[in-house]
Write a structure and sequence with these properties.
The chain is mainly alpha-helical. The chain has helices at residues 2-12, 61-82; strands spanning 49-51, 58-60. It binds zinc ion (ZN).
C-alpha cells in the first residue's frame, strides 16, 4: 500500500523509485565516501557517530546510512538495466 503510493508519486514527478534492503547500510564503511567497505556491528560507537574498526574512517552515522542506501539503489538499477 505505502510502496504503491510512493511509486505512483515518484513516477508522477518523473522520478525513479528503487526498493533497497537497508540491512547493514548503517554498519558499512562507505566506499563512496572514501571508506574501505568493511561491515561490522562494532562500527557504531554512538547513535550519531560512525567509526570504522578497520580503516578508522569516521562520519555521521546517518550520513553513512544514507550514502550506503543510495549506493545500494544505484547498484540495483545498474543490475536491472544490464539484464
Ligand atoms: Zn573502513
Amino acid at each position: 500500500m505505502f510502496l504503491g503510493i510512493l511509486t505512483h508519486m515518484a513516477e508522477s514527478a518523473g522520478r525513479e523509485l528503487i526498493h533497497v534492503n537497508p540491512a547493514n547500510t548503517s554498519r558499512t564503511c562507505p566506499p563512496s565516501m572514501g571508506g574501505c567497505g568493511h561491515v561490522s556491528g562494532d562500527d557504531r560507537v554512538t547513535q550519531a557517530g560512525f567509526v570504522c574498526v578497520r580503516c578508522g574512517f569516521t562520519a555521521n552515522a546517518d550520513v553513512v546510512g544514507a550514502i550506503n542506501v543510495l549506493r545500494a539503489g544505484l547498484v540495483l538499477r545498474e543490475t536491472a538495466q544490464a539484464a
